[in-house]
Design brief:
The complex is a heterodimer of chains A (49) and B (617). With 49 residues, chain A is mostly helical. Chain A has one helix and no strands. Chain B is mainly alpha-helical and 617 residues long. Chain B folds into two domains: 104-487, no CATH class; 514-615. Chain B contains 25 helices and five strands. Chain B has helices at residues 2-23, 31-55, 61-78, 80-103, 105-128, 134-150, 168-178, 191-207, 212-223, 226-232, 238-252, 258-278, 281-285, 293-296, 300-303, 312-336, 363-375, 396-413, 415-434, 450-460, 467-487, 496-504, 520-526, 565-572, 586-597, and strands at residues 532-535, 554-556, 576-578, 601-605, 608-611. In chain B, strands 2-1-3-5-4 form a five-stranded mixed β-sheet, covered by helices on one side.
Chain lengths: 49, 617
């Protein structure tokens, strides 16, 4: 019973972990994406010059 | 240039040899922990040598080279055997590396490429950018400039009292500036600490049960944290405290044998002293590590004191550590009756401000800092990350996306990780309680993101995690770290055109433009090298660029200017005054106007004034 229970817990956690992490990534990206894009563009410009 | 490099290389080689000989007596804790120990000893020897030479008034490249000649002679006469044995041990360690690398050529290649990318980034920042951080230009680097100019550990005469705070990191910065008599590579002082920090995370990872490769990638996940990587070359001292804290965590996450217990105590003492001498924040966060006692402490750690004997080497190391750790506090205590001057330290009190910091543990500050972190700073908003971390944590993409989930998983599955996490969290809370809630204080917590990298590694190696979830997490971590890599390419301040401008200036002239208005060249044209220049400032200005990149100008802030600047110039023995346009102080502007009207001084342009001859002594 315990083994079965822990198996289900692991399965649920395994599924939740990437989903939760991707959600966190999207939350961070919402504010930071513009900065990163602008920054990358600037650097590409610098390398070109 | 060749002579400078020879002197530098010769003296540095001597200190490496000395560190290697001492290292024989403290090694044994583990391969990488031992290598960090060697680096720690080298940094301790650099600090104590610079300090002793400064106290003796001989802090010059020539004197250091002469000291090295005596040192090499001593090693040749008395230390050859020790050196040979230590070198053989080091060689054996490197062979272990080579063997491990040969077994996994692809992974080794990838790790090496990542490391080289980070080093290339550091080299570009050190070489192409002049020191640009406000605090570094205000009171850190002026100390280095004064020490290099005067050859003693004199305190610069500036209108900033923070100049009396501990300057252990400046001892190491001075090492990078005294030989070339220039600040071209002064920012490199933080790079050894950066390497120490990432190596320490590798050791913690190994002690948590991770395999070598996983621990290595774990340390690189941490290495790309914007707060850490940006501060490695920023001339600020927080990277050093972070590295020493992580090293202490690394050597205390696992019990050691009785034979090594004494050595571990000694290494702990050396790292703590070095850290306290660099910044008091080391003292704030240190008690948090006590939790690691549950993971790495055993009875043998106390039994080793039963047969306690101190060798000459141990005494010398303890003395050197005590010197670099306590000198600043002793000096302030003697001079001002307060070791922490200008901050007044009380045990526990309400946060009511002080000289630069609140100087007391305050629950209100802890709560405010904690709330500020989770409500705002962790999102890193408000522009690209920069080493000052204004209103941001600088923990970056990886910590935010992979940190929380993996942290929970790690807590459940790994007991040692649990104690490590508790230690780090306690340290963070202690830090928050001790420091004034302000926009920039997350600089003091650069060590904390290591927890996210460790949690991630513990999680992805756990057998219960589904293979598909493991792949998804690794992919996400790779993407987040790559984005962190983009964030640390620049410094968060300089725009591409400014980078280009700096790259086009010869390194000998590369310096920050004062207030963005006056260029070094215009100062060089008006101020003869070696002249004492009085300068006016609003208080917390960036004074350092006034010294010039080669420390060619001597500067002094005139406290006594009651009778005008001309009188002050006569009093302090100076013929030049620098009064930048941005000064708004009405009384000072009036004094300047009076001196100009009476023709006691004449303007040379760009904020530079010269004492008229008939008024000179």
């Amino acid at each position: 019973m315990n083994n079965k229970f822990s198996k289900w817990i692991s399965l649920a956690a395994s599924l939740l972990l990437p989903l939760f992490s991707i959600w966190c990534f999207s939350v961070y990206a919402e504010g930071k994406w513009k900065d990163t894009l602008k920054f990358t563009k600037n650097w590409i410009e610098l390398v070109r010059q | 240039m060749i002579v400078i490099l020879c002197k530098w290389g010769f003296t540095s080689a001597f200190l490496w040899m000395l560190a290697l000989i001492a290292w024989r007596r403290v090694r044994g804790i583990g391969l990488i922990a031992d290598l960090i120990g060697l680096l720690l000893l080298k940094l301790l020897f650099i600090s104590s040598t610079v300090m002793l030479m400064g106290l003796a008034g001989h802090l010059t490249a020539d004197s250091l080279a002469v000291l090295a000649v005596f040192g090499w002679t001593g090693i040749a006469l008395f230390g050859r055997q020790d050196l040979r044995k230590a070198a053989q041990r080091l060689l054996r360690m490197l062979i272990v590396f080579k063997t491990a690398a040969a077994r996994r050529p692809l992974q080794t290649g990838l790790l090496l490429t990542t490391f080289l990318f980070l080093m290339a980034r550091m080299a570009a920042h050190v070489w192409f950018l002049p020191p640009y951080i406000h605090d570094a230009n205000t009171y850190h680097l002026p100390r280095v400039a004064e020490w290099v100019q005067s050859g003693t550990l004199t305190v610069p005469h500036l209108p900033v009292k923070r100049v009396y705070w501990p300057a252990g990191f400046e001892l190491i910065q001075t090492w990078w500036a005294v030989f070339p008599h220039h600040d071209a590579v002064v920012e490199a002082a933080g790079v050894p600490f950066f390497m120490m920090a990432i190596a320490a995370v590798f050791v913690i990872g190994r002690n948590l049960g991770l395999q070598r490769l996983t621990a290595a990638w774990c340390s690189f996940l941490f290495a790309f944290t914007p707060a850490l990587a940006l501060n490695a070359t920023s001339s600020k001292n927080d990277i050093a405290v972070a590295a020493l804290y992580l090293y202490l965590a690394a050597i205390w996450t696992k019990p050691v044998s009785r034979r090594l217990a004494g050595r571990r105590w000694l290494l702990t003492f050396l790292a703590v002293c070095l850290g306290i001498g660099i910044k008091p924040t080391m003292g704030f966060i240190l008690p948090g590590l006590l939790w690691l006692g549950f993971a790495g402490f055993s009875k043998t750690d106390l039994r080793c004191f039963r047969r306690f004997k101190i060798s000459r080497w141990t005494s010398a190391l303890v003395a050197a550590a005590l010197l670099v750790g306590s000198y600043w506090y002793a000096r302030n205590w003697i001079r001002f009756g307060n070791p922490f001057y200008p901050t007044t330290v009380r045990a526990v009190a309400a946060a009511d401000g002080g000289g630069g910091q609140q100087g007391a543990f305050s629950l209100a500050s802890a709560a405010e800092n904690w709330q500020w972190l989770w409500a705002k700073k962790i999102y890193d908003l408000g522009g690209p990350c920069n080493p000052d971390l204004p209103s941001m944590a600088g923990w970056g993409w990886f910590v935010f996306s992979c940190g929380a989930g993996c942290f929970l998983w790690g807590i459940f599955v790994n007991q040692r990780f649990r104690w490590t996490a508790l230690s780090f969290l306690t340290s963070l809370l202690l830090l928050f309680g001790w420091v004034t809630p302000d926009l920039w204080n997350m600089r003091f917590a650069q060590w904390f993101p290591a927890l996210a990298a460790l949690a991630f590694s513990v999680t992805v190696r756990h057998q219960r995690l589904l293979v598909s979830a493991r792949f998804a997490m690794v992919f996400l971590a790779f993407a987040a770290t790559a984005l962190n890599g983009l964030s640390i390419l620049g410094n968060g301040y300089a725009r591409p055109e400014e980078w280009l401008a700096f790259m086009q200036i010869p390194v000998s002239e590369r310096a920050l433009h004062l207030g963005g208005v006056v260029k070094q060249k215009s100062l060089d044209e008006r101020l003869p090298a070696g002249e004492l220049v009085l300068f006016m400032a609003e208080g917390d200005d960036a004074f350092y660029p006034l010294y010039g990149p080669g420390f060619t100008r001597r500067i002094l802030y005139p406290d006594d200017r009651r009778d005008g600047f001309a009188a002050a110039m006569q009093k302090y023995g100076s013929r030049y005054l620098y009064f930048p346009d941005h000064i708004q102080k009405t009384s000072a502007k009036q004094l300047l106007a009076d001196d100009l009207t009476a023709k006691r001084i004449e303007p040379l342009g760009r904020g530079v004034y010269k004492l008229v001859k008939k008024h000179s002594k």
